[in-house]
Amino acid sequence: MKNQIKPFIYLSIALFISACASTNKMTMGVTTPAKVHLSSAVKTIGIINRSEPSKGNKGLDKIDQILSAEGLNLDQKGAEAAISAFASELEMIKSLDEIKILENIEEVKSGLGVLPATLSWETIDKLCDTYNVDVIFSLAFYDTDTKSSFKVTTMPLENNLGVKVNVPAQEVTLNTLVNCGWRVYDPSKKLIIDEKNYTEEMIFHGQGINPIKAVEAVKQRNETIQEYSRNVGIAYAQRLIPNKVRISRDYYMSGTDNFKVAHRRALTGDWDGAAELWKQETTNPDLKIQGRANYNMAISSEIDGDLDLAIQYASKAYTDSKDKLALDYVNVLKYRVQQNNVLDQQRSN
Predict the structure, then answer these.
(1) Highest taxon of the source (predicted)?
(2) Which residues lie across from 149 on neighbouring strands?
(3) What pTM was computed for the model?
(4) In this predicted model, what pLDDT tens digit does every residue of 97-110 receive, in sequence order?
(5) Domain map (residue ranges) of the chain
(6) What is the pLDDT of residues 130-154, one digit of tens each?
């Protein structure tokens, strides 16, 4: 019985490999809409910092005092780095006339390590009127939370003779969790048009002859967190900018000699030449070949930027030939049409 089953298993595997080998992957560049859209009426942006260091370090032991005091500095410097990078990145948006960082506004500070309650529209309107801005971007919170753990180890240390010897030591592991969040207020529509949180866990190590020296020996912690904060500011600013991405498509490269030649043309970048041969096969009496040709013509049309024609070809590949890739591709193309419509609206508004 086992010997009878084996040929069918091998045949199934061979057919699967053959099906996989019938297509080749290509990529193309497309532009997707900005995740956060500002109307063309927005010319001046105000940025506020609602985060501030938490207060109350009393009653802490020496190690906690070091970590808490450093944490205050990490929060302050990290928030400043995020806002500065965000403002600098926004300057690339040509439709904006001015980006203002609004500082030392007591009524907006929260000092919370989580996303705080929204500001009232009365407060937002007052800020916009006072500082002559159209929209308020808020760094709603910024918080670093550090937990420490210690273990006994050894470390090399020079003795009085200048010879390095291993001595008992403490190794500290600092697990720092960075949390921050942004919020955008549009007073003209009385809408919060975006909220976005960022979280990153970072681990640092240090050694010393005692726990305090071990904590003090931790290197690059401040620099690493500030660099991450700058990247967060840049990443959030990029939500306002249409994004250029690369997408992949699988096209058929076998079926007839025309498919093989077209594949070689495609590999050299001659997509028009490949399309000439694929189009010839759209009238092939073999429905399977016809379906593959229509599917490939859909990809060719997408490359040319004609998504409506691409949908027509992909739909025909599915309805007339039941091509296995075509139905999913139709839905992908319809989504791209929707995205392009959003992008056109953003550009016109």
Answers:
(1) Bacteria
(2) 173
(3) 0.75
(4) 999 999 888 878 76
(5) 44-144+180-203+217-240, 255-349
(6) 999 999 999 999 988 888 887 777 7
